[in-house]
Design a protein that fits this description.
The protein is mainly alpha-helical. Helix content is 94%, strand content 0%. The protein has one domain. Keywords: Membrane, Transmembrane, Transmembrane helix.
Length: 36
Amino acid sequence: MSNKTLLASCLGLFHNGLLQLGSLIIMGLTTIIFHK
C-alpha cells in the first residue's frame, strides 16, 4: 500500500513538472513567434 501511494505521489510530481515545462515551452514559442 505504501509503495502504491509513493508511486502515485511521484507520478503526480512528474505530471506537474511536465505541465509546467510544457507551459514554459509554449510561452517561449509564442514570444518567439510574436517578436518576429
